[in-house]
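ingest -> validate -> predict -> emit
validate: passed (alphabet ok, no gaps, 420 aa)
predict: started
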Amino acid sequence: MAEGLAAETVDHRFKGLPPDADGLTVGELAAQRRNLFTGGFTTPVLALSAESVEHNLALLETYAERHGLAFAPHGKTSMAPQLFERQLRRGAWGITAAVPHQARVYRAFGIRRIFLANELVDPAALRWLAAELDADPEFRFIAYVDSVRGVELMDAALPGVSRPVDVVVELGAGEGARTGARTEADCAAVADAVAASASLRLVGVAGYEGEVPRADGERVRAWLRRLTALAADFDKAGRFPADLGEIVVSAGGSAWFDAVAEVFAELPPLSRPVLRLLRSGAYVSHDEGHYERITPFNRVPEEGTLEPAFRLWAQVVSRPEPGQAFLNAGKRDAAYDLGLPEPRLVRSTRDGSVRPADGITLTALSDQHSWLRVAEGTALDVGDWVALGLSHPCTSFDKWQLIPLVETDGTVTDFVRTFF
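emit:
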C-alpha cells in the first residue's frame, strides 16, 4: 500500500506542507526527515504523533488477543490505507466500512476482508460488489441486513452472482436508536428472507451497542446479551447454512468494548466456531475530549491507556486586545462537533521553547480563525505556534489529505494519506 502512496507528488493540494517541497514525491519529502517547526511547514498543520499511533495500535492488538476477539477496526475514522495496513499487520481480521465508497477505497488498496456496518441496497454498488467477488476468490465481504425489503432489494440486484453475499442480521439497540431490526421476531423474519434468497447467505448477527438509549453498563450489557442470545437461538433453530464454517457475532464501538469483551466471553458453545468481531476505530489516534472521557480504559486502567495522537499546530496572527488573540486555524481545519479544540502547548518563535498553554482558552471558531481568551500576565506573541488538542477523530482526519507523522523531537518521518 505505502509504496504507491509514496510516489504521489507533493503540491498545492495538501495543506501545511512546505512550499519548497513542490515537485518532490511524498516518499522523497519523508526521506528528508524535516522538522515540523523549522523545516518549512506552514500553519495550520495537523500532525500525528508517531509514538502515540504505534502505542495505540499495539494496545488494541494486545487487548483483542487477551480477550479472544477478532478485530475489524472501523476504517471510516481515518480512511487512511497506510493505517489500515498497520492495523492488519497488528492482527486485524479485516477493516469495517459504512458506505460503498469506503469499501471501494479499501479494495483499491487490496483489503481482502471488509465488514460493512450498514444495509447495502444500492443496485450499482451491489453490482460492483458482485464483480469484486467474482474477480477475487479470496475476497470476504459481510454486510448488515435489517429488513425484509432490504433483503429483497439486494437479491434483485444480484442475479446470477457466482457466490452468495454474506450477511449478518442487525439487532437494533432499542426504540428510537439508529438502524437495526427492533425485535427478535423482526430479526427472525429477516433471517427467513435471507434463507429464501438465492444470492445471500446468513453468517451471523451484529449490532452497535453505542446506540443503546441512555447507555450505561447495565443497559449495554443487557442489549449485548440479547445479541448473543439471538446468535444462539438462530443456531439452535438451524438458521445458519450447513456449509458455514463459523458464526459471526459482531459489535463494539470505541466506548463499550470492555462490555463487548465481557459478554462475548459468556457466549456458550455453538454448533461451529464463533468469530467474535470487535469494530472499534477511533483508538488509532484517540483524542483529547469525547473519546478521552468515554474510553473503556478509564474503567479498566489495568488494561492500558490510549494516547491522544493529534496536534493541530496554528500560529497567533493577531493580538488586537490584551486579553484576546487569534490563531489561523478554524472550522476548515479542526473538529468541533464534539467539543471545541483545546490549547495544549505554546512554541515560542523567539527562542523555540515549548511550554504548556496555561492561561489560554479557545472560546470559538470561525471558518479560518480560532478565538482565544488570554489571561492577564500570560505571554503569547504574534507568530507563536499553539498546539490544539482535538476531540473526535472521525471529523479530524477528513479535513486533511496528507498528515505528517511526527516524532517527539519534531522530526517528520512519514505522511499519512486520507481518502474521504
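The mean pLDDT is 97.
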